[in-house]
Amino acid sequence: MDWHLLGISFITVFLSELGDKSQLAAIALSGRGQSVKTVFFGAAGALLLTSLLGALAGGAVAELLPTRILKAIAAVGFAVLAARLLLFNKEEAE
């Protein structure tokens, strides 16, 4: 097992999930629910399942497409998002 990759993955996901919608939903549910453990296990199971599905999908795509093409697709996607935010932001015009 690559412990460095495990640590980086854990830290990245942990930091990105702080204050996320799923954590806010868990806080709301545990405040209203009678069993905090049930909310914890439900939220942990959902996060594990979505992470597993994401890792499986990423591995499958990485097997089908070369790294260079994946990087190009990601770069084009980010460029399109940046252009839409900068050029077509209707909220600022109003």
UniProtKB/TrEMBL annotation:
<keyword id="KW-1133">Transmembrane helix</keyword>
<keyword id="KW-0812">Transmembrane</keyword>
<feature type="transmembrane region" description="Helical">
    <location>
        <begin position="40"/>
        <end position="62"/>
    </location>
</feature>
<dbReference type="InterPro" id="IPR001727">
    <property type="entry name" value="GDT1-like"/>
</dbReference>
<dbReference type="Pfam" id="PF01169">
    <property type="entry name" value="GDT1"/>
</dbReference>
<comment type="similarity">
    <text>Belongs to the GDT1 family.</text>
</comment>
<protein>
    <recommendedName>
        <fullName>GDT1 family protein</fullName>
    </recommendedName>
</protein>
<feature type="transmembrane region" description="Helical">
    <location>
        <begin position="69"/>
        <end position="88"/>
    </location>
</feature>
<keyword id="KW-0472">Membrane</keyword>
